[in-house]
Amino acid sequence: MKQRKSTHQKSVYYYNQWKKRKIFVMLSLLLLTGSCFVLTLNSTTTSTTTSRILTLASLRSHFVVQKPKIAFLFIARNRLPLDMLWDAFFKGQESRLSIFVHSRPGFLFNKANTRSEYFLNRQVNDSTQVDWGEATMIEAERILLRHALVDPLNERFVFLSDSCIPLYNFSYTYDYIMSTSTSFVDSFADTKEGRYNPKMAPLVPVNNWRKGSQWVVLTRKHAEVVVNDTTVFPMFQQHCKRRSLPEFWRDHPIPADTSMEHNCIPDEHYVQTLLAREGLEGEITRRSLTHSSWDLSSSKDPERRGWHPVTYKFSDATPMLIQSIKDIDNIYYETEYRREWCSSKGKPSRCFLFARKFTRPAAFRLLDMSVLGSLRKATNKS
Ligand SMILES: *[C@@H]1O[C@H](CO)[C@@H](O)[C@H](O)[C@H]1NC(C)=O
Ligand SMILES: *[C@@H]1O[C@H](CO)[C@@H](O)[C@H](O)[C@H]1NC(C)=O
Ligand SMILES: *[C@@H]1O[C@H](CO)[C@@H](O)[C@H](O)[C@H]1NC(C)=O
């Protein structure tokens, strides 16, 4: 009995001990979980705070210290003859711009052939031989965009030729482009000319076929769409072959029998058609910011006869010419009976920020006459 009692007592004791231990273990478990919870809580709050600080820092670096940039993408045959004009335009604005140059493979910008430091070490290293009027021009555009997209601060992408000039100072240009969330793409239905190759259907349907100037300004999203495109570009490569035209057709008089040609002029259809096909036309302002003058008259100068862009020479480069380009406030699209009244920030505005084509002497004359806003002043200041 004693034995049993003691056994019983013992077992009761053990039971109690066990119970106590259980409670202890449970309590400690609870405590442990609790503290773990608190710890996790603590660490999450810490990490949230940290990440919040980081986000704030990156936000600050994005929006305060580092401003959104405009990428200026130059497509040149060789060097940039108007480099000094752009030098004056860029001066003092380094934090708001980046520059990329596509020139013929093998041509290297150096101090001997460029007078502006802005263009040194700005060449893309994988440039392609551009044959005017072939899909290689589009490839050059895509190469430039690919390079420029690497910098997340680049928010707009402006294509420029080696004969383009800026019409205003940098601040005005920057505000004009950044004040809207749209791209600027000259784009209109191209029903007349029969440049569409029916072999592109159904991947590129004819109702998406658009025409317009290649000198576009793209948002980051649209730049990505162009770089990501694996459908429309191969169609252009395959079906847009230049036939007998020795050069970019607009730079030359129209041949007597155009029906012999099947050249879709890829660079004047690609971006427009791609954006239409992707259903993104609601995100573009359908006009170019770059003025070209198309000479349709029968000029006495045989070099200027036919439909091709006018090249302004030294004697043409007057304040009146620049003012007449700046004064344009609407563009008429004949094929669509559409008149595009230009506006910026919701107010009527000038249409063009850039103009082509200018020779080097013409551009220098404009720079000397301070015709292009305060470009000259900006140069003198520094
Ligand atoms: C171009 O430069 C980049 C970055 O420096 C490099 O990764 C790439 O291999 C180069 N491409 C060519 C074709 O040289
Ligand atoms: C830039 O040009 C605009 C428009 O021509 C002018 O109003 C503005 O004062 C100029 N800004 C500078 C910094 O010169
Ligand atoms: C383009 O492709 C990249 C990489 O696949 C992707 O991150 C990006 O969202 C794409 N952009 C668009 C606009 O489709």
Automatic annotation (TrEMBL):
Membrane topology recorded in Swiss-Prot or TrEMBL: Single-pass type II membrane protein
Pfam families cross-referenced by the UniProt entry: Branch (PF02485)
Keyword field contains Glycoprotein: yes
Signal peptide: none
Primary location class: membrane
Keyword Glycosyltransferase: yes
Keywords: Glycoprotein, Glycosyltransferase, Membrane, Transferase, Transmembrane, Transmembrane helix
Subcellular location: Membrane
Regions that span the bilayer: 23-41
Protein name, entry field: Core-2/I-branching beta-1,6-N-acetylglucosaminyltransferase family protein
Species of provenance: Salix suchowensis
